[in-house]
Amino acid sequence: MPNARPDTPAPATPEPPLSRQDRKDLTRQSLVQAALRLIGEGRSFTSLGIREIAREAGMVPNAFYRHFRSPDELGLSLVDEVGATLRGLLRQARQPSSAQTSVVRQSVQVYLQYVRDNRVLFRFISSERAGGSRVLRLAIRHEVQRFVDDTARDLAPLEAYQGLSQASLHMVCGLMVNTLLAAAPEVLDLPADEPQSEQAMVQDFVQQLQIILLGAASWREAERR
Questions:
Q1: For 148-171, b where at least 16 C-beta lie within 10 A, e where not — what string?
Q2: How far is it, in rounded angstroms, from Cα 37 to Cα 57?
């Protein structure tokens, strides 16, 4: 029997079969992505029905109920995803650096990049934060408070903010977080081919946050009187 040619490719190793949990996760993610595609087409989340989401995902409606009890529960998973990911990114951006200004600027840049990379998610968040179902409004409000708590925890050890009462520190951090959240629609409307407009937006938000932080230091002095 002749020897095999040396350039004959080795037989491909078959992919291991997906586990039941893997298949379940893929189906769940397909439903989430289907909802996001519909939102990306200009639909409001509150207008989406179970049958429509399932049809977009190529499934029967009963498949939806194996993963979510309602569209609101699917929406809650989106809120959790945005909150967990963005809080982690901003926590990393707030790590001590050579100057406070660079930390503020880095945080703004990280936030703007995340908004640009997740446009549909932020359209969903912006829309549901202002309207939508009460369940989602409360969930978004809870995530905002977690952002505030995280920011306050990072600022508290800094010398400039030691002596501020906890209530005042959380008020300052709330102003910072809400300033960034309010910026999301402006970021989404920013043309991709105008880097100068983006730089101007970054500078504007950096200055807004710096003004809030400077005001916090002055407020600390007022509290001491």
A1: bebbbebbeeeeebeebeeebbbb
A2: 10
User: Is there a contact between 209 and 179 (Cβ–Cβ < 8 Å)?
Assistant: yes
Crossing angle for the helix pair 134-155 and 71-93, nearest 10 degrees?
A: 10
Q: In whole angstroms, what is the distance from residue 167 CA to residue 208 CA? A: 21
With tokens 């595609």, the residue in question is: 37
According to CATH, the topology of domain 71-224 is Tetracycline Repressor; domain 2 (1.10.357)
User: In this structure, are residues 119 and 144 in contact, taking their beta carbons and an 8 Å threshold?
Assistant: no
For residue 148, the one-letter residue type is V
Task: Kindly state which CATH superfamily the domain 19-68 is placed in.
Answer: Homeodomain-like (1.10.10.60)
Domain range summary for the chain, segments of one domain joined by +:
19-68, 71-224
Residue by residue, pLDDT tens for the chain (225 residues) are 455 555 665 565 666 666 767 678 889 999 999 999 999 998 999 999 999 999 999 999 999 999 999 999 999 999 999 999 988 888 888 776 545 557 888 888 889 889 889 999 988 998 898 887 899 999 999 999 999 999 898 888 877 777 788 888 899 899 999 988 888 888 888 877 778 888 888 899 889 988 888 887 777 666 665
Report the C-alpha gap between 205 and 201 in whole angstroms: 6
Q: Summarize the chain as % helix, strand, coil (round to 5).
A: 75, 0, 25
DSSP designation for 157: T
Half-sphere exposure of 136 toward its Cβ, with a 13 Å CA cutoff?
A: 23
